[in-house]
Specification:
Structural class: mainly alpha
CATH superfamily of the largest domain: Type II secretion system (T2SS), domain F
CATH class of the largest domain: Mainly Alpha
């Protein structure tokens, strides 16, 4: 949002201008960091419906953060100062929301704030993992290397996650089309055909009676079924916001045949890669476990890692703490133990992450290869069975005339 302001600088001169910020409070803070005394600040223009900030339009995606991290890494390697990096990127990025965030980060840096603290003010954009990695880079003096690590990690994570998510879009689309076609046939086509059979007085087979009965139910009570589905969907969505509900839904997701195994490998790859990246960047073991638990993206594995963190804090080796949980496979426990004994835990976890990433990619490729023919066959059988149940009696009726 754009704000107009009147202010006085340290030399007593009047300063008028505009500033882009998410709110008036943020704009005031940014101007005060520039050592300006504000006499007036107000929105530059009245908002209208066409200029409303709609949440799902122009949102900051994971892809935006991946590209941004790569650009930051490149500029830091070129020895560009941190303030200039964020000023340049704020002026160049196409996403207006991201540009506003980067501009605010630049204002904080100009006011003397560390990069990690400036990024932490935007938790919806920069995760706990991201901020802690940057903080580790500031403390170790290897900020440019840290941004390279971050760019590589986010690139790998985005590639694997998007591949897994895209693989599930196709079956969901086919299933939705299947139920849509069936609903249209049962509510629009079958009632007209069934009327012919009823008027003929011919004996109707039991399977045709079942189809006609189901069709009549949808015609008469379909609106209530739709309302029940919507209410159920909202209820599940609300339950998913609670800790217990999220734990149940995430556990159910992992229990789905084949798909659950795919998700499990995806989360194990994320844990291994996340953990390895932080250890190699100088983050402490306990802190790395705690951060990994907060960004894993699954309530079941979050609980597992939280308990592992408590055990390690109490003096238990990581491998022993991991071995207590059936969600963690034996190969991960064994390789972690080797890493602890050799002092190469970061390198071992990197190898493990590559292994699980390959497993995810292979599982996705297999799933995509199987889904298409299976879905086409099921769709054909469903529609064919429905038509046969009604058309065969009609053919019999025509033959009897």
């Amino acid at each position: 949002m754009l704000f107009k302001y009147h202010a006085i600088d340290q030399d007593g001169r009047k300063r008028d201008g505009t500033i882009e910020a998410t709110s008036q409070e943020v704009a005031v803070s940014a101007l005060q960091r520039r050592n300006l005394i504000i006499s007036m600040i107000a929105p530059a223009e009245k908002s209208s419906f066409l200029k409303m900030d709609i949440p799902f339009l122009g949102r900051i995606t994971n892809k935006d953060i991946v590209i941004l991290s790569r650009q930051i890494a490149t500029l830091f390697e070129a020895q560009v100062s941190a303030l200039r990096v964020f000023r340049l990127l704020a002026a160049e990025v196409d996403n207006k929301k991201l540009a506003t965030v980067l501009s605010e980060v630049g204002d904080d840096l100009q006011g003397g704030s560390p990069i990690s603290k400036a990024l932490a003010r935007h938790p919806k954009v920069f995760s706990v993992f991201y901020v802690n990695m940057v903080h580790a880079g500031e403390e170790s003096g290897k900020l440019s290397e840290i941004f390279v690590y971050l760019a590589d990690y986010l690139d790998r994570s985005y590639d694997v996650s998007s591949k897994a998510e895209n693989a599930l879009i196709y079956p969901m689309f086919v299933i939705a089309v299947f139920f849509g076609v069936m609903a249209l046939m049962l509510t629009l086509v079958i009632p007209k055909i069934s009327a012919i059979l009823v008027d003929s007085g011919q004996a109707v087979p039991i399977y045709t009676q079942i189809v006609i009965g189901f069709s009549n139910f949808l015609v008469n009570y379909g609106i209530f079924v739709l309302i029940a589905l919507v209410v159920g969907g909202v209820y599940v969505w609300q339950i998913g916001k609670t800790e217990r509900g999220k734990l149940f839904l995430d556990g159910f997701k992992l229990s789905i045949p084949y798909v659950g195994d795919l998700y499990r490998k995806l989360f194990l790859a994320r844990i291994s890669d996340n953990f390895a990246t932080m250890l190699l960047s100088g983050v402490s073991v306990i802190e790395a476990i705690e951060i990994a638990s907060s960004v894993v993206g699954n309530a079941v594995f979050h609980e597992v890692l939280a308990e592992v963190g408590r055990d390690v804090r109490g003096g238990s080796p990581i491998s022993r703490a991991l071995g207590k949980h059936p969600e963690i496979p034996g190969i991960m426990v064994a390789m972690t133990k080797v890493g602890e004994e050799t002092g190469e835990l970061g390198a071992i976890l990197t190898t493990l992450a590559k292994f699980y990433n390959r497993e995810v990619v292979n599982a996705v490729d297999t799933l995509v290869g199987l889904i298409e023919p299976i879905m086409i066959v099921l769709l054909g059988l469903g529609v064919g069975t429905l038509l046969a149940a009604v058309l065969l009696p009609i053919y019999n009726l025509a033959g009897a005339i």
